[in-house]
Design a protein that fits this description.
The structure holds 2 protein chains of 2 kinds. Chain A is an alpha+beta fold. Chain A is about 35% helix and about 20% strand. Chain A folds into 2 domains: about 160 residues, Alpha-Beta Complex (Penicillin-binding protein 2a (Domain 2)), CATH 3.90.1310.10; about 325 residues, DD-peptidase/beta-lactamase superfamily (Beta-lactamase), CATH 3.40.710. By secondary structure, chain B is mainly α. Chain B has one domain. In chain B, helix 2 packs antiparallel against helix 15 and helix 5 runs antiparallel to helix 6. Chain B starts with a helix and ends in a 7-residue tail after the last helix. The chains are: A alpha+beta, B mainly alpha.
Chain lengths: ~600, ~375
């Protein structure tokens, strides 16, 4: 009860403050209302006048978008003006004149014109209504001379995006599209307008803020008839920044040309810096289809294509790395001391682990195999044995060291990280511990392992670079319209694997002999006078498929992926690359010749038959 | 006993449900939705996204209001510091995210990172201050030594919001804090000190504003002093919004008929400049009704603050009311050209989820204090 009294006592001591506060509220609201009174009732006439007659109108001047160029400054994406005919329905006083003159210039029937104007009349009065776009220069000049001073008719020049190299680098450059209402809301303070074109994919999207530029305004005076009588004020739009890529478009185009197979990917990096030299994903599409906007039919075709041409396989294609992964298993074995360089295993063509038979690609077996021979001839059984003693977790640790399982960090936003399975993951995903069989399949890059082409190229770059892992990058620099460099990329070392130098040398020698030894699996990439290091891979799509079947009898989607990774690091110009041909068959047979052509072009070596 | 307590807690409390404050909030929100519809109709014929989203936020606000009314408001007193801490962490997160983006986009726009925990920061500051000052409220005057902690409570979010940079919100948080301190019953000495500090801050800002304010903020203040100074840039907003308000006249041009609204593109007209649409389409009478609703809300709130059962309830109610008061004053003053353009929303009316939810939190707190003013527990 005492609590009751105490609490009650506390309440009635704020009378003075409440009185002052009420007075302040009354005072403030009086000020607001009197100002409102002045604006609306005393000066209201004047403001209505300003609002209706003698109007100055503010026209928005869209900023020209920045260009994207290759490392030599060749234009890959740029703006071109596009003219369109629009009307302001609220101001159109002489629609008959428009129906009389415009159809003959535009080559459409007067009935069609009448219908379009009826639609315009039913749309918001003050919003521009577009009648036709993509006008030719002749159409523009005819329209201007005949309808130029008709009230409510506007001929608008709007830039559209043009891609001179068409489908080259399409996945990297990306597309533009009309801003969606969601994007419009999110970017409220960027002052986008409905109908604006914004980047939807690739660099166009990820670097939108740089490419966009800043809009300008044109304040024009309009007389009673709605004609422009002068410009009272003008702020010019500012062009967006230009983006220069690390790629050479000529090499890129060449790589695209030599990749004649249906689907797959090529990634080439400079191992020392991580610069991207080529990034190809097939099939591709013509970027100009999207500019200024893609037709429904084209969009449907692209979207429903079973080969998914819109997908950027170089950073989003997930493949089991196959035998190319054997170098990871080898480095793990050497580093953990599970094997020594001279350790041998017997390959009898197959190995039985927990009641399951795992076969070597060579049915007769390789006999007594050392690590060197196992890499050169890609013996599976050697790595089964090694994987069995290592266990999945230790292989996984080294896979991560080579960059598998995490996004490479290239400047494209939708890169996939791939997957490196370990016991924790298996427990989480399947609720069962990792088994010996998992370690065995993992040792030759099969099973749950998933990697992207750029990860495979980065792995090769790390080997070429004696274990230093560089971050791949493809933006060279960003230059503002007035010539200032806003951003210049520097090579970033992600980490150093700190492998024993002797082990790396051993691996590098084996990779050299993959190409140069007559029993090597990568013979088809041999180039006289160039020291190519490489590893082949053939990644199975369907497990336990009967291997006796001839290639052309296997349905396309069940054929193996052909993989080939290679590097050259004893020239001033270095390169590391990965070639993946989806459902292409064997890596040595299908992917290696493509790599050979790319290397010949890169080093300017005439391509002679082997 | 147990029965009596439960009965007292729920049945009796809800019997005294604070209808006036709640219905004013709901009416204002509905007016707001109509205005947002009009403001965004010109953006695109088929684009109803803004209205749909605001209605969704409104529904969520009602659910939240109900939830916050079920518990006794003393729970907010108990957890006020934790709520405050959570908001501070959110502000730091927003700031660090903003910093990362600014590192790569500095030259485009600094405004992008004005994300919204700052709306709730206002309420959190009120709760924390009420907890600190509520003990002494009514029993003894607040002395200077009592103000050390409250000062910290106020200045931390002000600083965090200022670096966003969001000058408007920083000023509002500061003003709210000062309002609560003044309401808590300071001694004459404290009042004198606060007055002197206020004057010196003003002088100091006047001389050092060159270094403190960002370019666009300076521009806005210059524009406020002389709207014609930059008619295409920042002055443009004020001139256009004055034309819009003025052309509304006594009865307005009618719903969806405002020429300024439909024609001119004000990028924030559905958020911070929503009042101009009210003024243009519904005229002086429409504005009077809305301002009258706000005034009713404020006076009812003051009366609740007066009658609250304890110091915390009284201070928290007053603090919440002061949030609404400062928002209305600054926002309406700004669109009419009485005050510089700073980003302050108009409670209940402006488009935006966090602003609307924060407004309903305020209503819930005030109504909660009102409902439970006769509940006493030993």
């Amino acid at each position: 009860m005492s609590e009751y009294i105490r609490s009650y006592d506390k309440t009635h001591n704020s009378r003075l403050q409440i009185l002052i506060a009420s007075a302040i509220v009354i005072m403030t609201f009086s000020i607001l209302i009197s100002k409102l009174w002045r604006l609306q009732l005393i000066e209201g006439e004047y403001f209505s006048e300003m609002s209706y007659s003698n109007r100055t109108r503010l026209l928005r001047l869209a900023p020209p978008r920045g260009s994207i160029t290759d490392c030599n400054g060749k234009i890959l994406a740029q703006n071109q003006p596009n003219f369109s005919l629009s009307v302001f329905p609220g101001e159109l006083r002489e629609p008959e004149k428009l129906i009389e003159i415009a159809p003959s210039i535009l080559g459409i029937s007067p009935e069609r014109m009448r219908i379009m104007l009826l639609n315009a009349a039913n749309s918001p009065k003050y919003k521009m209504f577009q009648l036709k776009r993509n006008l030719s220069i002749e159409e523009v000049s005819l329209l201007k001379s005949n309808l130029g001073d008709t009230k409510g008719v506007v001929i608008e020049a709007k830039p559209y995006r043009q891609y001179p190299y068409r489908e080259s680098l399409c996945h990297v450059l990306g597309t533009l599209g009309e801003i969606s209402s969601e994007e419009l809301m999110k970017s409220e303070r960027f002052v986008y307008k409905p109908g604006d074109l914004v980047g939807k994919t690739g660099i166009e999207k990820d670097y939108e803020s740089y490419l966009k530029g800043e809009e300008g305004w044109n304040q024009i005076e309009i007389d009673a008839k709605g004609r422009q009588i002068g410009t009272t004020n003008k702020i010019l739009p500012q062009k967006g920044a230009d983006i220069m890529l690390t790629l050479d478009i000529d090499l890129q185009k060449y790589v695209e040309q030599v990749f004649v197979e249906r689907a797959g990917s090529v990634v080439a990096l400079d191992p020392e810096t991580g610069r991207v030299l080529a990034l190809v994903s097939k099939p591709d599409f013509d970027l100009n289809l999207f500019s200024p906007s893609i037709s429904e039919r084209n969009w449907k075709n692209l979207n429903s294509d079973p080969l998914h041409p819109l997908e950027n396989r170089a950073i989003r294609g997930l493949y089991a790395p196959g035998s190319t992964f054997k170098m990871v298993t080898a480095m793990a074995g050497l580093s953990y001391g599970v094997i020594r360089p001279e350790t041998t295993f017997d390959c009898a063509g197959e190995l039985e682990v927990s009641n399951q038979t795992y076969r070597c690609w060579k049915q007769r077996g390789h006999g007594k195999v050392s690590l060197h021979k196992a890499l050169v001839e890609s013996c599976d059984v050697y790595f089964y044995e090694l994987g069995l003693s290592l266990g999945a977790d230790r292989i996984a640790k080294y896979a991560s060291l080579f960059g598998f399982g995490t996004a490479s960090g290239i400047e494209l936003s939708n890169e996939l990280p791939g997957l490196v399975p370990n016991s924790a993951w298996k427990q989480r995903r399947y609720g069962s511990p990792i088994k010996d069989g998992d370690s065995v399949t993992m040792s030759i890059g099969q099973g749950y392992l998933l990697s992207t082409p750029i990860q495979m190229a980065a792995m090769m770059a790390a080997v070429a670079n004696n274990g230093k892992v560089m971050k791949p990058y493809l933006i060279h620099k960003i230059v503002s319209a007035d010539g200032r460099a806003l951003f210049e990329n520097q090579p970033v070392q992600k980490w150093d694997t700190s492998f024993d130098y002797k082990h790396i040398q051993l691996l590098q020698k084996a990779l050299k002999d993959v190409v140069e030894d007559k029993s090597g699996t990568g013979r088809k990439s041999f180039i006289p006078g160039l020291r190519v290091h490489a590893k082949t891979g053939t990644s199975q799509v369907i497990t336990e498929k009967d291997r006796i079947t001839e290639m052309d009898q296997v349905p396309y989607h069940e054929r193996t992926h052909a993989m080939f990774v290679a590097y050259v690091n004893d020239r001033p110009k270095k390169i590391a690359l990965s070639v993946i041909v989806e459902h292409g068959g064997g890596g040595g047979a299908v992917a290696a010749p493509i790599a050979r052509k790319i290397l010949c072009k890169y080093y300017d070596i005439p391509e002679s038959p082997q | 006993m147990a029965y009596f307590e439960i009965h007292n807690k729920f049945v009796v409390s809800f019997g005294r449900l604070e209808w006036s404050i709640i219905s004013v909030s709901v009416i204002l929100t509905m007016i707001g939705i109509a205005l947002i519809y009009s403001a965004t109709a010109s953006l695109g014929v088929h684009d109803k996204t803004f209205v749909v989203k605001q209605i969704a936020w409104f529904s969520l606000g009602i659910v939240m209001l109900t939830a916050l009314l079920i518990v006794d408001y003393r729970i907010f007193e108990k957890y006020s510091f934790w709520i405050y801490l959570g908001i501070i962490v959110a502000l730091i997160v927003v700031w660090s995210i903003g910093r990362v983006t600014a590192g790569s986009r500095r030259w485009i726009d600094l405004g992008l990172m004005r994300f919204q925990p700052s709306e709730f920061a206002k309420v959190a500051v009120v709760l924390a201050l009420s907890r600190l000052l509520g003990e002494k409220f009514g029993s003894a005057p607040i002395e200077l030594s009592d103000l050390i902690k409250p000062f910290g409570i106020i200045i931390l979010p002000v600083a965090l919001v200022l670096v966003q940079p969001d000058l408007g919100t920083a000023i509002v948080i500061f003003l709210i804090g000062v309002s609560v301190v003044l309401f808590a019953g300071p001694s004459k000495r404290v009042v004198a000190w606060l007055f002197a500090a206020g004057i010196s801050v003003m002088v100091w800002t006047y001389f050092f504003s060159g270094k403190l304010l960002l370019d666009y903020q300076k521009k806005r203040i210059a524009t406020f002093l002389n709207p014609d100074y930059d008619p295409l840039g920042s002055g443009y907003h004020i001139i256009q919004s004055q034309i819009a308000i003025g052309s509304g006249g006594l009865t307005g041009q009618g719903f969806l008929q405002g020429a300024q609204n439909q024609l001119m593109f004000l990028p924030v007209k559905h958020t911070d400049f929503i009042f101009t649409i009210l003024a243009e389409e519904f005229g002086f009478i429409g504005c009077l009704i809305v301002l009258g609703l706000f005034a009713a809300y404020l006076f009812r709130g003051l009366s609740i603050a007066h009658k609250a059962r304890d110091g915390f309830g009284s201070l928290a109610t007053f603090g919440c009311i002061s949030i609404i008061f400062w928002h209305v004053t600054i926002n309406v003053g700004m669109v009419m050209g009485l005050l510089p353009v700073v980003g302050v929303p108009l409670n209940f009316l402006s488009y935006g989820g966090s602003s609307l939810l924060a407004s309903f939190t305020i209503t819930a707190l005030v109504a909660n204090v009102s409902m439970r003013r006769f509940n006493y527990y030993s």
